[in-house]
Specification:
751 residues, five-stranded mixed sheet, globular, mainly beta, 3 helices, 22-stranded antiparallel β-barrel
Length: 751
Amino acid sequence: HKTRNIISLLMCGAASVAFAASPQGNALEEVTVVAQKREVNIQKAPVAITAVSAQTLDQNHVINPVDLNGLIPSLVFTTSEGFNNSVSIRGVGFNVPQNDSAQPGVSYHIDSVYIANPVSLNTGFLDPDHIEVLRGPQGTVFGQNSVGGTINVISKLPTFDGATGYADVSIGTYNLEQFRGALNTTLTDTLAVRASVDQSRHDGFGNATKVPGTNGKYELSNDDSVHGRLQGLWKPNENFSFLLRAEYAQLDNNAPLSKAIDDPNPDPWTQSSDWPGFQDIKQQIYSATATYTTSFATIKSLSSWQASDHIGSLNEDGLSTALFFPHDVEYEFQKSVNWTQEVNMSSLPGGKLDWIVGGFFLTGNEKVGYTQWGLSPSAPNAPNYLFSKPASFKTGADLPDSLYFQSASRLTRQSWSLFGQGTYHLTDALRVTGGMRYTHDENSTDIHDYFDLRGPGVFVKSATNSLTGKGEVDYDLTPDNLVYASYSTGFKPGGGNISLAPAVVPFQYKPETVTAYEVGTKNGFLDNSIRLNAAAFYYDYANMQFEADDVNPFQGGVDNIPTSEVYGAEAEASILLPHNLRLDGNITLEKSRITSHFLALDNVAANAADFASGFAFYSPLNLALRKKAYRDIYGNAVPMVPSVQTAVSLTHIWDFAGGGQLLSKFDVQYRDQYQAAVFPKSRIYTAPSYVLSNLYFDYTLPGDKVDIAFTLSNIFDKAAVQSRFVNQFGGEATQSYFPPRQAILKVGYRF
């Protein structure tokens, strides 16, 4: 009986994953997750964690991390300047997308390997088994940059089941063509290999209308990407395994649509831009995971080498010389190499004390460069000077007036940490958990602006030592009802700003920390046909890093707001209904505010001051007007904290007499408006609310080998704003949208 066996659900509260029913078809199956680096039943994990299965990803047309918006409670994923991605959970994340030395606030892992460069968030999910998202500081087990939580992508690994795999082909609107496939094979009794590939292309969701020579049809938000992975698993005996992996991803796309909120064309899918922006990204990840089980513990080593290359060009204001002066365009490059090594040892299950200890090391270097131009009808050209200085540039006086900004910097980082965590079973129903992590982080920033023709470069170096920890108690009221309370801390390091002469913004910004208090409950009712989970939390947020402008033009960077707070509650439920129906839903309620007095310069106000001074940068009038524009931001909201987020889905299974099965799913997502920066609520800084609805049908032919799926996303073709961005260095306000309505037909074969 297959009833409900392939239902994918959205069940958060602690989890969202594809659950299969019991043989009787009237209960939700147990789900095992890696959680805090130990496998555990998700309903027994005393932590807010969401697990989204591969089936659920397909049903919601989730291609890459940004598509997780709406699926994960408290998560807000935004984009800025084409390639910068910012993820925030419960208001804690990444508020400084224009500073390459800053670190993300939600760590990203692939099969527990830490991915060091946020550019990786541009690549899609390849051959996933499921995705786990842990809320709250995970500073003990996952370390720095987990102040908001962590995302762990769990891939499908090689198995010794012989030749198995799948292949599917999708076509759809906007000339979508996608092929995905995986092949698993057993070479010997001890060696298995799995190869996976995902190749995709589609036309742009929008157009730049004023790019010369394109007849108003320069595509934006198109896709031309390929992603591949090869894995080899050697398992000579039951106690030892060695997994070797090579992964490559490449994106060769035009720039994403980033529409100015003052674009005179009201069509959300057109951008009055005259600049042919592009984004080319290449990423390589090579990793090795060795696991050895002794009579008392499991020892694991995770090693990786990661490289990322990005070259791009974008229109910062989203307009043209005919509409905006000065008209900002930019070239950018980023090249990074990172090594990571972790070794951990964990106890075997079944003892009185469950424990894990380990160490982590990271070393990396990154080159970044920007060339920014302020174009005008009299100076419409923007040469690419990223990699070489023209011979004619011999002094600062030789630089073109339209060259707003040029920078080439080298960033380095070394970090090591030691950690340990244990859970002691006081009774069969009562447990206490404690953990601690010590981290030492060093970083340097070697900054060179304007080819060093306006002054020598600046070298900034800083080091941070941090101790984070966790304390927790959880209790089984019944075998199906758990309550817990926890205290945890997390931090992400400070760094050096890529600015040569700031007057207010510091050369070095401080680490930020979060102290979190959480209570929660996980419940199964009526023979586990209903799951209801809830959590409430309070965050004491110290030294929040934010994008700060400076009295001196173009010298902004990262600064710290001393204290803030975020608090709220989450609730999720999954209910098996009669007639093969299933209802899933979640809701998150949040509030936030800045609790310290702090003077900051609104980017838009700074831009207005520049305009009022006739763009006479650094003149006495210009500096006086910029200084006058500072405001106290006490009481303002923390960025990316919508007061309400909710999602509801209804799924139905129809079993046919001949053995076929039809799955139908309808879902609705809502997100309230939120502040995009630390400044007061305004038209500029407020990202509007949205409602999105989606349909999905999947017919599995008798034999369970072939299925035909149809997706209709954004049914009502809403121009839903995914994120709002205000440029720190210019004040331009742009916004990105969720994709328009898409119809996609997929045919898949499993063997």
